[in-house]
Amino acid sequence: MSFAPDIIERLARARADLRMGVPIVLTGGVVPLLVLAAETLTDARLDDVRGLAEEPHLVITARRAETLKARAYDGDVARISLPKDAGLTWVQSIAAPEDDLKSPMKGPLATARDGDADLHRAAVKLVKSAQLLPAALTVSLPDAAQFALDHGLTVIPAPLAAPHLAATSPLHPVVHARLPMAAAEAGRLHIFRPEDGGAEHYAIEIGRPSRDKPVLARLHSACFTGDVLGSLKCDCGPQLHAALDQMGIEGEGVLLYLNQEGRGIGLANKMRAYSLQDQGFDTVEANHRLGFEDDERDFRIGAKILQEMGFAQVRLLTNNPRKIDMMEKAGVSVAERVALKVGQNAHNQAYLATKAHKSGHML
């Protein structure tokens, strides 16, 4: 019998620690690392890091490094040497782009080019998976086991964690119940919970669709601003309701509501992207300046839910070719793409044009 948490449970604990500003320890490389999320770093903990013997680094993604004109010798990440006089404001100005235009000169930034960067790369992935800005303060810990024990820190062996950071967590059905809706009285809501402690996802089933033929389906990523507040900056709310309405008219369908706000970067980072858009950057440029890719969502989640519910073929309501490709690769056949062109207005014309031009949406 063992009560010790397994690697999935330890990763969930590590994400919670990072979100609260608590350090974690990464092992499995040449030298273990102490890791803190730049976004939740405090003056006190920055001082503590400076009190350690080794030189700290601020690790950022290559996307963010490109904005800052810092060399990413490690490919997808850059290890910036922390200047001796750099305080918390400096660290967070490197991590967050809101003030880039007000104070564009943050360098010159010296980046490391020697030594193994695998743990630094894992640190950024873990911070990003906690839906924080993808920037981590790191420092080498030669005696990591004792240090972690003395300070009560979560220890993550990076080689064990790597497959789980790359994979989609297994999902399990929790409960389902009848839910009459304006779009269709014959509605049923299914709740699915991932093993990794992440956000739950939902399937809204209309009618009793056959499992033996393609079902009308929609992969819809949560959008608090559009779905709930009626934001005019995107077309998410109109797409949600149009998809449900079409399923109601046909008498059957499945809408998967995936909790991947802001193309997978979370609501706080989405608002940071909106702030950058107000400065003149388009939606893709804003994500890159934050250190993210164009789209961080994982549509394999939707395929897993459909398969759990017994569906193998779909008529997919989408304008996004990436959803079609990922569904096919995940084992769900897309028999037909059903266009969903609604919600264009004066406020989101540029946004939709960027999606079509840079992300390949069929608009």
Description:
The protein is an alpha/beta fold and 363 residues long. It contains 15 helices and 13 strands. Helix 14 links the parallel strand 12 and strand 13 (333-338). The protein is globular, with a radius of gyration of 22 Å.
Could you give the order of strands across the largest sheet?
7-8-9-11-10-12-13
Percent range for β-strand residues: 15-25%
Termini gap: 56 Å
- Sequence stretches where pLDDT stays below 50 over 5 or more residues: none
Shape: globular
Tell me the series of helices and strands, N- to C-terminal: HEEHEHEHHEHEHEEEEHHEHHHHEHEH
Helix segment tally: 15
Helix content: 25-40%
Q: Could you give the count of β-strands?
A: 13
Descriptors for this entry?
363 residues; alpha/beta; seven-stranded mixed β-sheet; six-stranded mixed β-sheet; 15 helices; 13 strands; 21% strand; globular
Strand-helix topology:
Layout: H1 7-19, E1 24-27, E2 33-37, H2 43-50, E3 57-61, H3 62-68, E4 77-81, H4 88-95, H5 118-129, E5 135-140, H6 144-151, E6 154-157, H7 158-166, E7 171-178, E8 187-194, E9 201-206, E10 215-221, H8 224-228, H9 236-250, E11 253-258, H10 261-264, H11 267-278, H12 283-290, H13 300-308, E12 313-317, H14 321-329, E13 333-338, H15 349-359
Parallel strand pairs: 1-6, 10-11, 10-12, 12-13
Antiparallel strand pairs: 1-2, 2-5, 3-4, 3-5, 7-8, 8-9, 9-11
Helix pairs in contact: 11-12
